[in-house]
Amino acid sequence: MVQSLPNHALTHLNGAADFAADIAQCPTRYVLSDDLTRLCTALAYSKGARNLACADLLRVPSERVWVEWCQSAWRSELQLYGFQPVAGHAPSSGRRGALIRSSPSGRCGLIRTFWSTGETGFNLLASSMEAYFDLDTEEGEEPDAPDDQETPALCVSDTTNQDLGVLHRCFRFRYERSWADYYRHAMLTAERQEAVARHLLGTIAADIPVLLAFFLLLSTRTGLPRRMPALERLNRSRARAGKAPLLDHIEVSSPIIRESHCAGSGAPTMVRRVPRLHHVRGHLVRRGNQVFWRIPHLRGNARSGVVRTRTVTWTIDRPPRQSSAAADRRPTVPSDAPPTARDRLR
User: Where are the domains of the chain?
Assistant: First the structure.
Protein backbone atom coordinates (compact mmCIF):
# COMPACT_ATOMS: atom_id res chain seq x y z
CA MET A 1 0.00 0.00 0.00
CA VAL A 2 1.35 3.41 -1.01
CA GLN A 3 0.07 6.70 0.37
CA SER A 4 0.20 9.89 -1.65
CA LEU A 5 1.97 12.74 0.13
CA PRO A 6 -0.18 15.58 -1.36
CA ASN A 7 -3.66 14.10 -0.73
CA HIS A 8 -2.92 11.04 1.47
CA ALA A 9 -4.80 8.76 -0.91
CA LEU A 10 -3.98 5.06 -0.60
CA THR A 11 -3.05 2.97 -3.64
CA HIS A 12 -2.75 -0.81 -3.73
CA LEU A 13 0.15 -1.95 -5.89
CA ASN A 14 0.05 -5.48 -7.26
CA GLY A 15 2.62 -7.69 -5.48
CA ALA A 16 3.59 -11.23 -4.55
CA ALA A 17 0.63 -11.80 -2.20
CA ASP A 18 -1.79 -11.29 -5.10
CA PHE A 19 -0.39 -14.41 -6.78
CA ALA A 20 -0.48 -16.81 -3.82
CA ALA A 21 -3.65 -18.55 -5.01
CA ASP A 22 -2.50 -18.67 -8.64
CA ILE A 23 0.76 -20.40 -7.71
CA ALA A 24 -0.92 -22.77 -5.24
CA GLN A 25 -3.40 -23.84 -7.94
CA CYS A 26 -0.84 -23.96 -10.75
CA PRO A 27 -1.05 -27.47 -12.28
CA THR A 28 2.63 -27.67 -13.28
CA ARG A 29 5.46 -26.60 -10.96
CA TYR A 30 9.17 -27.20 -11.55
CA VAL A 31 12.03 -26.74 -9.10
CA LEU A 32 15.45 -26.65 -10.78
CA SER A 33 18.53 -28.15 -9.20
CA ASP A 34 21.60 -25.93 -8.91
CA ASP A 35 23.45 -27.81 -11.66
CA LEU A 36 20.53 -27.37 -14.05
CA THR A 37 20.25 -23.68 -13.12
CA ARG A 38 23.91 -23.20 -14.00
CA LEU A 39 23.52 -25.14 -17.25
CA CYS A 40 20.47 -23.11 -18.35
CA THR A 41 22.24 -19.86 -17.49
CA ALA A 42 25.31 -20.92 -19.45
CA LEU A 43 23.14 -21.92 -22.40
CA ALA A 44 21.41 -18.55 -22.24
CA TYR A 45 24.46 -16.31 -21.97
CA SER A 46 27.43 -18.10 -23.50
CA LYS A 47 28.90 -16.12 -26.36
CA GLY A 48 27.89 -18.63 -29.01
CA ALA A 49 24.29 -18.98 -27.81
CA ARG A 50 23.09 -15.40 -28.21
CA ASN A 51 22.22 -15.46 -31.90
CA LEU A 52 20.94 -19.01 -32.00
CA ALA A 53 17.61 -19.11 -33.87
CA CYS A 54 15.67 -21.64 -31.80
CA ALA A 55 12.31 -19.88 -31.65
CA ASP A 56 10.62 -22.61 -33.71
CA LEU A 57 11.73 -25.27 -31.20
CA LEU A 58 10.48 -23.46 -28.10
CA ARG A 59 7.15 -23.97 -26.38
CA VAL A 60 5.81 -23.54 -22.87
CA PRO A 61 4.83 -27.05 -21.68
CA SER A 62 1.53 -26.03 -20.06
CA GLU A 63 -0.94 -23.14 -20.02
CA ARG A 64 0.14 -22.31 -16.46
CA VAL A 65 3.66 -23.12 -15.30
CA TRP A 66 5.68 -22.20 -12.22
CA VAL A 67 9.50 -22.47 -12.40
CA GLU A 68 11.69 -21.95 -9.32
CA TRP A 69 15.46 -21.94 -8.73
CA CYS A 70 18.13 -20.92 -6.24
CA GLN A 71 19.54 -17.41 -6.66
CA SER A 72 23.09 -18.27 -5.59
CA ALA A 73 23.68 -20.71 -8.48
CA TRP A 74 22.02 -18.31 -10.92
CA ARG A 75 24.01 -15.26 -9.80
CA SER A 76 27.36 -17.03 -9.66
CA GLU A 77 26.90 -18.26 -13.24
CA LEU A 78 25.75 -14.82 -14.43
CA GLN A 79 28.94 -13.27 -13.09
CA LEU A 80 30.96 -15.60 -15.34
CA TYR A 81 29.29 -13.90 -18.30
CA GLY A 82 29.83 -10.29 -17.27
CA PHE A 83 26.82 -9.55 -15.04
CA GLN A 84 27.81 -7.48 -12.06
CA PRO A 85 26.56 -8.61 -8.62
CA VAL A 86 23.58 -6.69 -7.27
CA ALA A 87 24.57 -4.31 -4.49
CA GLY A 88 23.21 -5.29 -1.11
CA HIS A 89 22.28 -8.88 -2.10
CA ALA A 90 24.24 -11.74 -0.60
CA PRO A 91 25.04 -14.31 -3.32
CA SER A 92 23.96 -17.22 -1.10
CA SER A 93 20.51 -15.95 -0.16
CA GLY A 94 17.06 -16.29 -1.62
CA ARG A 95 15.26 -18.05 -4.43
CA ARG A 96 13.70 -16.92 -7.69
CA GLY A 97 10.58 -18.00 -9.53
CA ALA A 98 8.54 -17.25 -12.61
CA LEU A 99 4.84 -17.73 -13.30
CA ILE A 100 4.07 -18.24 -16.98
CA ARG A 101 0.57 -18.09 -18.45
CA SER A 102 0.59 -19.39 -21.99
CA SER A 103 -1.73 -20.03 -24.90
CA PRO A 104 -2.63 -23.70 -25.58
CA SER A 105 0.00 -23.77 -28.31
CA GLY A 106 2.70 -22.68 -25.82
CA ARG A 107 3.90 -20.08 -28.29
CA CYS A 108 2.66 -16.84 -26.71
CA GLY A 109 1.88 -15.68 -23.21
CA LEU A 110 2.73 -13.57 -20.18
CA ILE A 111 5.54 -13.93 -17.58
CA ARG A 112 5.83 -12.46 -14.09
CA THR A 113 8.91 -13.04 -11.90
CA PHE A 114 9.31 -13.28 -8.11
CA TRP A 115 12.18 -13.55 -5.66
CA SER A 116 12.86 -13.87 -1.96
CA THR A 117 15.52 -12.13 0.09
CA GLY A 118 17.31 -13.85 2.95
CA GLU A 119 17.09 -17.48 3.95
CA THR A 120 13.74 -17.41 5.75
CA GLY A 121 11.55 -17.05 2.65
CA PHE A 122 9.27 -14.49 4.31
CA ASN A 123 10.49 -11.46 2.33
CA LEU A 124 8.85 -12.08 -1.03
CA LEU A 125 8.85 -9.60 -3.90
CA ALA A 126 7.28 -9.51 -7.36
CA SER A 127 8.54 -7.70 -10.42
CA SER A 128 6.52 -4.57 -11.17
CA MET A 129 7.15 -5.34 -14.83
CA GLU A 130 5.80 -8.26 -16.79
CA ALA A 131 6.97 -9.77 -20.06
CA TYR A 132 4.70 -10.81 -22.89
CA PHE A 133 5.87 -12.85 -25.85
CA ASP A 134 4.91 -14.32 -29.18
CA LEU A 135 7.44 -16.82 -30.50
CA ASP A 136 5.92 -16.64 -33.99
CA THR A 137 6.84 -12.97 -34.39
CA GLU A 138 8.54 -12.39 -37.72
CA GLU A 139 11.65 -10.27 -38.15
CA GLY A 140 10.70 -6.58 -38.32
CA GLU A 141 7.34 -7.12 -36.59
CA GLU A 142 6.23 -6.52 -33.00
CA PRO A 143 4.77 -9.22 -30.72
CA ASP A 144 1.12 -8.60 -29.89
CA ALA A 145 0.14 -8.01 -26.27
CA PRO A 146 -1.95 -10.92 -24.92
CA ASP A 147 -4.77 -8.57 -23.89
CA ASP A 148 -4.78 -6.74 -27.25
CA GLN A 149 -4.25 -3.44 -25.46
CA GLU A 150 -1.79 -0.81 -26.68
CA THR A 151 0.33 -0.34 -23.55
CA PRO A 152 3.81 1.13 -23.07
CA ALA A 153 6.26 -1.57 -24.16
CA LEU A 154 10.02 -1.79 -23.67
CA CYS A 155 12.38 -3.74 -25.93
CA VAL A 156 15.62 -5.12 -24.53
CA SER A 157 18.65 -4.74 -26.78
CA ASP A 158 22.42 -4.66 -26.43
CA THR A 159 24.61 -1.84 -27.70
CA THR A 160 27.43 -4.31 -28.43
CA ASN A 161 25.17 -6.89 -30.08
CA GLN A 162 21.97 -5.56 -31.62
CA ASP A 163 20.81 -9.02 -32.69
CA LEU A 164 19.65 -10.78 -29.54
CA GLY A 165 17.55 -13.28 -31.48
CA VAL A 166 14.47 -14.55 -29.67
CA LEU A 167 14.59 -12.07 -26.78
CA HIS A 168 14.88 -9.03 -29.03
CA ARG A 169 12.32 -10.12 -31.60
CA CYS A 170 9.66 -11.97 -29.60
CA PHE A 171 9.58 -10.35 -26.14
CA ARG A 172 8.36 -7.01 -24.83
CA PHE A 173 8.29 -5.70 -21.27
CA ARG A 174 5.72 -3.42 -19.66
CA TYR A 175 4.64 -2.22 -16.24
CA GLU A 176 1.89 -4.17 -14.53
CA ARG A 177 -1.31 -2.09 -14.67
CA SER A 178 -1.33 -0.78 -11.09
CA TRP A 179 2.36 0.08 -11.30
CA ALA A 180 1.86 1.77 -14.68
CA ASP A 181 -0.81 4.00 -13.10
CA TYR A 182 1.45 4.72 -10.14
CA TYR A 183 4.43 5.83 -12.24
CA ARG A 184 2.24 7.79 -14.64
CA HIS A 185 0.82 9.86 -11.77
CA ALA A 186 4.27 10.31 -10.23
CA MET A 187 5.14 12.86 -12.94
CA LEU A 188 8.76 11.73 -13.22
CA THR A 189 11.24 13.50 -15.46
CA ALA A 190 12.31 11.70 -18.64
CA GLU A 191 15.72 10.98 -17.11
CA ARG A 192 14.17 9.56 -13.97
CA GLN A 193 11.69 7.49 -15.98
CA GLU A 194 14.52 5.85 -17.88
CA ALA A 195 16.50 5.17 -14.70
CA VAL A 196 13.47 3.54 -13.06
CA ALA A 197 12.68 1.48 -16.16
CA ARG A 198 16.25 0.19 -16.45
CA HIS A 199 16.29 -0.75 -12.77
CA LEU A 200 12.97 -2.60 -12.99
CA LEU A 201 13.94 -4.38 -16.20
CA GLY A 202 16.83 -5.82 -14.19
CA THR A 203 14.31 -7.67 -12.00
CA ILE A 204 12.89 -9.69 -14.90
CA ALA A 205 14.79 -9.44 -18.19
CA ALA A 206 17.79 -11.57 -17.16
CA ASP A 207 15.45 -14.43 -16.19
CA ILE A 208 13.86 -14.79 -19.64
CA PRO A 209 16.79 -16.40 -21.54
CA VAL A 210 17.28 -18.85 -18.65
CA LEU A 211 13.62 -19.88 -18.83
CA LEU A 212 13.88 -20.31 -22.60
CA ALA A 213 16.92 -22.55 -22.19
CA PHE A 214 15.01 -24.66 -19.67
CA PHE A 215 12.00 -25.03 -21.97
CA LEU A 216 14.33 -25.95 -24.83
CA LEU A 217 15.88 -28.73 -22.73
CA LEU A 218 12.43 -29.93 -21.66
CA SER A 219 11.47 -30.46 -25.30
CA THR A 220 14.49 -32.63 -26.11
CA ARG A 221 13.84 -36.22 -27.07
CA THR A 222 15.55 -37.61 -23.97
CA GLY A 223 14.11 -34.91 -21.70
CA LEU A 224 15.59 -34.00 -18.32
CA PRO A 225 16.01 -36.13 -15.19
CA ARG A 226 12.89 -35.57 -13.05
CA ARG A 227 11.80 -36.63 -9.59
CA MET A 228 8.46 -36.27 -7.81
CA PRO A 229 9.35 -35.85 -4.11
CA ALA A 230 7.09 -37.50 -1.53
CA LEU A 231 6.06 -34.62 0.72
CA GLU A 232 3.53 -36.24 3.08
CA ARG A 233 5.87 -36.89 6.01
CA LEU A 234 7.74 -33.64 5.52
CA ASN A 235 4.53 -31.62 5.40
CA ARG A 236 3.25 -33.31 8.57
CA SER A 237 6.45 -32.25 10.32
CA ARG A 238 6.12 -28.73 8.93
CA ALA A 239 2.51 -28.55 10.12
CA ARG A 240 3.52 -29.53 13.66
CA ALA A 241 6.18 -26.80 13.54
CA GLY A 242 3.65 -24.23 12.38
CA LYS A 243 5.14 -23.95 8.87
CA ALA A 244 3.25 -23.83 5.60
CA PRO A 245 3.19 -27.09 3.63
CA LEU A 246 5.32 -27.45 0.54
CA LEU A 247 3.43 -27.55 -2.76
CA ASP A 248 3.62 -30.59 -5.01
CA HIS A 249 6.28 -30.06 -7.64
CA ILE A 250 8.69 -31.79 -10.01
CA GLU A 251 12.39 -31.57 -9.18
CA VAL A 252 14.40 -31.29 -12.39
CA SER A 253 18.16 -31.82 -12.60
CA SER A 254 20.80 -31.55 -15.29
CA PRO A 255 21.78 -34.39 -17.58
CA ILE A 256 25.05 -35.86 -16.32
CA ILE A 257 27.81 -33.60 -17.60
CA ARG A 258 31.08 -34.23 -15.81
CA GLU A 259 33.19 -31.35 -14.65
CA SER A 260 35.54 -30.40 -17.45
CA HIS A 261 39.26 -30.85 -16.83
CA CYS A 262 42.24 -29.67 -18.78
CA ALA A 263 43.62 -31.87 -21.52
CA GLY A 264 46.98 -33.50 -20.88
CA SER A 265 49.72 -33.30 -23.45
CA GLY A 266 53.22 -34.61 -23.80
CA ALA A 267 56.09 -33.12 -25.71
CA PRO A 268 54.94 -31.04 -28.66
CA THR A 269 55.07 -32.85 -31.98
CA MET A 270 54.47 -29.81 -34.14
CA VAL A 271 56.54 -26.77 -34.87
CA ARG A 272 53.70 -24.58 -33.67
CA ARG A 273 53.97 -23.78 -29.96
CA VAL A 274 51.52 -25.63 -27.73
CA PRO A 275 48.84 -23.13 -26.63
CA ARG A 276 48.85 -22.04 -23.05
CA LEU A 277 46.16 -23.41 -20.75
CA HIS A 278 42.99 -21.37 -21.20
CA HIS A 279 39.25 -21.62 -20.72
CA VAL A 280 36.91 -22.03 -23.69
CA ARG A 281 33.42 -20.64 -23.17
CA GLY A 282 30.47 -22.90 -23.85
CA HIS A 283 28.51 -22.25 -27.01
CA LEU A 284 25.60 -23.67 -28.97
CA VAL A 285 25.43 -24.91 -32.55
CA ARG A 286 22.22 -25.87 -34.31
CA ARG A 287 21.85 -28.12 -37.33
CA GLY A 288 18.24 -28.77 -38.30
CA ASN A 289 16.38 -30.10 -35.28
CA GLN A 290 19.55 -30.93 -33.37
CA VAL A 291 21.16 -28.56 -30.88
CA PHE A 292 24.81 -29.14 -29.93
CA TRP A 293 26.20 -27.73 -26.67
CA ARG A 294 29.98 -27.29 -26.61
CA ILE A 295 30.47 -27.35 -22.87
CA PRO A 296 32.92 -24.91 -21.22
CA HIS A 297 36.34 -26.55 -21.02
CA LEU A 298 40.04 -25.89 -20.59
CA ARG A 299 42.34 -26.08 -23.60
CA GLY A 300 46.10 -26.09 -23.80
CA ASN A 301 49.09 -27.65 -22.08
CA ALA A 302 48.23 -29.24 -18.72
CA ARG A 303 48.86 -32.39 -16.73
CA SER A 304 45.83 -32.62 -14.44
CA GLY A 305 43.27 -34.62 -16.34
CA VAL A 306 41.57 -35.01 -19.71
CA VAL A 307 38.44 -33.46 -21.24
CA ARG A 308 36.50 -36.61 -22.10
CA THR A 309 34.09 -34.80 -24.42
CA ARG A 310 33.33 -31.24 -25.34
CA THR A 311 30.00 -31.82 -27.09
CA VAL A 312 26.52 -32.65 -25.81
CA THR A 313 23.85 -33.29 -28.48
CA TRP A 314 20.11 -32.81 -27.93
CA THR A 315 17.60 -33.86 -30.58
CA ILE A 316 14.22 -32.11 -30.58
CA ASP A 317 11.15 -33.53 -32.30
CA ARG A 318 9.18 -30.92 -34.16
CA PRO A 319 5.60 -30.91 -32.78
CA PRO A 320 2.71 -31.13 -35.28
CA ARG A 321 1.32 -27.77 -36.30
CA GLN A 322 -1.84 -26.84 -34.44
CA SER A 323 -4.91 -25.35 -36.01
CA SER A 324 -4.82 -21.60 -36.43
CA ALA A 325 -7.78 -21.17 -34.06
CA ALA A 326 -5.99 -22.97 -31.22
CA ALA A 327 -2.69 -21.26 -31.94
CA ASP A 328 -4.27 -17.82 -31.84
CA ARG A 329 -5.88 -18.22 -28.42
CA ARG A 330 -4.18 -16.01 -25.90
CA PRO A 331 -3.87 -16.33 -22.11
CA THR A 332 -6.52 -14.45 -20.18
CA VAL A 333 -5.12 -11.35 -18.50
CA PRO A 334 -6.67 -8.08 -17.25
CA SER A 335 -7.59 -5.89 -20.19
CA ASP A 336 -8.30 -2.55 -18.51
CA ALA A 337 -4.80 -1.08 -18.85
CA PRO A 338 -4.91 2.48 -20.24
CA PRO A 339 -4.11 2.76 -23.95
CA THR A 340 -1.01 4.82 -24.61
CA ALA A 341 1.60 5.16 -27.30
CA ARG A 342 4.21 2.39 -27.55
CA ASP A 343 7.61 3.28 -26.21
CA ARG A 344 10.92 1.53 -26.60
CA LEU A 345 13.95 1.47 -24.35
CA ARG A 346 17.31 0.68 -25.92
Answer: 2-253+321-328
